[in-house]
Design a protein that fits this description.
It contains 26 helices and no strands. It is mainly α. Among the domains are: 262-326; 338-422, Alpha Horseshoe (Serine Threonine Protein Phosphatase 5, Tetratricopeptide repeat), CATH 1.25.40; 435-528, Serine Threonine Protein Phosphatase 5, Tetratricopeptide repeat (Alpha Horseshoe). The chain starts with a helix and ends with a helix. Residues 11-18, 119-132, 534-539 and 541-557 have low confidence and may be disordered. Keywords: TPR repeat.
Length: 557
Amino acid sequence: MALRRAASLLLRPRLRAPSVMPPSDKRLALACIKLGQHLEASGAADPSRVLALALRSLGILEATPNSATSTTASHSDAVSLAMALHLAGSASFDLSRFHDALSFLTRSLRLVSPLLPSSSSAAAASGDDDAQGFDVRPVAHAVRLQLANVKTALGRREEALADMRACLDLKESILPPGSRELGAAYRDLAEAYSTVLDFKEALPLCEKALELHQSTLGKNSVEVAHDRRLLGVIYTGLEQHEQALQQNEMSQKVMKSWGVAGDELLHAEIDAANIKIALGKCDEAVTVLRNVSKQVEKDSEIRALVFISMAKALANQEKAGDTKRCLEIACDILEKKELAAPDKVAEAYVEVSSLYEMVNEFDKAISLLKRSLGMLERIPQAQHMEGNVAARIGWLLLLTGKVSEAVPYLEDAVERMKDSFGPKHYGVGYVYNNLGAAYMEIGRPQSAAQMFALAKEVMDVSLGPHHSDTIEACQSLANAYNAMGSYALAMEFQKRVVDSWRNHGPSARDELKEAIRLYEQIKIKALSCLSPENSAIALPEPLEKEVDSDSTRVAQQ
C-alpha cells in the first residue's frame, strides 16, 4: 500500500497530459509500476505479466537521460527506479527465479539506502520537490522484506535475519510507539531467530512483543496468546521447560476464553505434551495426546503429529515395541500427505527418524532421512533444512560403519550449512568434526587434521574455547597429527587439551587424567623417533607434575 501511494505521488502531473504518451515518457514508466503493484496486491495476477510491466518501466527509466544511474540523478528518479526494481524482484520471486530476484532487489536497496532520513543526503536537504512528497522509508522496508524472503528461499538464513532486523529498525522509526503492527514485527523476528535455533536472540524480541500487546490490547487478547505460545517454544529451546509449560498453558487459557478452536489450539496442546515429555511427565503427556487424537480426523496431519509425540513419550519410557507401532501409524498418514504438504511431511520424517534412532532402528532412520532429503531438494524455500538432513544421514552412516557412504553426505552438508547459516555457525563445526572422524576411519589423517582444525576454529568462536565439544575437537586434532607422525604438533594440541580440562576443575578429573596419559604417550613416540644428532630439537614444555600415580606408570610403561 505504501509503495502504491509513493507511485501515485511520483505520477502526479504538473501539466495536462497529452492523450497519447510517447513510449519513452517517464509517466508511462510510473503508470506501469502502479499497475504492476495493483496486480501484485490483488494476488490473482500472473507474475509473468507483473514482471513484464516492471521490465518495461525499467527500460524507460534507465534510458532516461537523467536516469538514477547517472551522477546528476534526482532523488525522485532514484526512488522511481528503486520501485521498478522492487517490483521486478517481487515478480521474479513469485516465479521462483530467486537469483534474478536477488539481483533486482540488491540494486533497489543500493538506490534507496542513501535517501533514508539518517543519511547525509536526505531528500529534504536536496530541495527536490518530488522527493518531499512521500517518505522513502516504506520503500526501503518493502525492499528489505522481500530481500529477506529471497535469501530465505536461497537458504541464506543468516543474511535473511540481517535484513529482517533492518526491517524492524525501519518499522520502529515509522510506526508510533505502541503500534500493534510493531508488536507483530517483534514477534515475526523472534520466530525467525527460533527457526535457526537462536533462542537467546529470540527471547527478548518475543518479550517485547508480549509487553507491547499487553499494554495496548490487554492481557487476554489473541495476540498475547500468540506471543505466549511462541515464548513456550523459545523456553523449550532454552531447556527452561517449567517456564515453557507455564507460557503454553496461559496461551491455551486465552485462546479458549476467546473461543479459538481448530488446528491452532490443537497444536498448542501437542506442544504442551512435548514439554511434559521433556519434564519426564510422560503419562500426563500421553493423556493429553489421547484427548487431542479424539478431536481430529483419522488421516489428518495433526493425528500424525499426535502419534509422533506419543512415540516420543513411549521411547522415553523404553517401550520400544509401542514406539515403533506409533511411528508406523504416523508414517502411513504422512505418506498420503507428501504431495499436498511436502515441506511439513519432510520435517516430520526427520523427527520420526530421530525416534527410530532412539530405539536402535538405524536403517529405518537413514531411509526416512534420505526420503526427506529427496523431498526437500524439490522445495526451493527449504534449502536451509537440506544441510541439516544431509549431516544427519552422514552421521548415522558413520555410526553404523558405512564410512565411505557417509563422506559425500558430510561433505555436501558442510557446504549447504555454510551457505545457510554462515561459516561460523556451531552446526558447521559439528559437521566438520564428523567429517574429520570419517577421514580418519578411511586412512586420510591429513584431510582429517584439516577438518578438525576447521571444527576447532568454528567452535572456539561459537561455543568458546573451554566448551567440552571444543576440547574434544582439539583432542581429535591431536590424534590426527599423532597418526600422521607429526608428534611436535600432536603434543602442542594435546597440551591444550590438558590445560582446558584442568580449567574445568574436579568435575573433569577423569578427562584430565586421560588427556595427560595421551600426552605422555605421544611424548614417548616423539623421543623414540629422534636420532642422537636431532635430540636437541625442542619439544613442547613438559606438563606440571600433577599426574596421578596411575598415569605416571602408564607413561613409563
